[in-house]
What does this fold into?
Amino acid sequence: MMKITVLDDYQGVVNHLAAMEILDGLPVDVTVLDRRVSEPGELIDLLGDTDCLILIRERTQITAEIIGALPKLKLIVQTGRLSGCIDLDACARQGVTVRDGTGNPIAPAEMTWALIMAASRRILPYSGQLARGKWQRSADEIGDERLGRSLFGRTLGIWGFGKIGKRVATVGQALGMTILVHGREQTRTAAEAAGISYEADRRRFLAQVDVLSLHLRLCAETRSMISADDLACMRADALLVNTSRAELMAPGALLQAMAGGRPGAAALDVFEHEPEGVANYLNHPEILCTPHLGFVEQDTYESYFREAFTHVRQFIQT
It folds into this structure.
């Protein structure tokens, strides 16, 4: 019997996925943890008899300490693409097989647009005031009121032009926005192939956009690459949207820049040290926060876990 543990199923949905059928007929015992376990010692105790560990993205760091303390562990499966949350060297030393799946640009691109629309039209503040009995109000005090704005004719800046960035650009074009792209040389090539304008200079790029959407991979080169001084180049009425990785920005950079008035607003789906790190942003009146929902929807979960459970089946049958 293979003991399988799925970590960090915050919503308790994995046991109800159709993808579970892939495990039918296999000698497996599946445990799904629906709470986050942040203390390594407690996690090691919970996983002591686990043969296979399935991760939901990078919600938990699987360190060398954890791997070394789990002698029965044979397989780790990462839903989606491998990230930096697994110590691969430690896995190699202990003979633990690591498998991953494929990414899915659809859900995060749609989430990006949900945030752009909601922040631009001030949907949540209006809805909150409506629940308090105030019609067409978005602030407690009349002196703090301001209108939302449409997107037609405005400039959408996309930093990173991979699969997600391209989908975001397509929607922006459909809405009548001007698209401007920034990134490394492969981004220039992709933008030119798509007939989209490219700006090589970072700060000239930031100064031109009404909406900035980040779509960069997190790696040593991109970690903390965006500074407060960079963000201060944005317009006072610009909106920054991040559904990619919080760590692309230097620690504290966004709050520092917004304290200086540029950019004027932000919509964030990702935070440093999730979930605790969201606390730094929750009470800011011009920041819309969502709890890392970019991939958290039915179709993506089914896809991720079909791949994950298929890896388990293949591992058992080989």
User: Anything to note?
Assistant: The chain has a mean pLDDT of 97. Residues 106-289 form a domain with the Rossmann fold fold (CATH 3.40.50.720). The first strand starts at residue 2 and ends at 6. The chain has two domains: 2-101+298-317, 106-289.
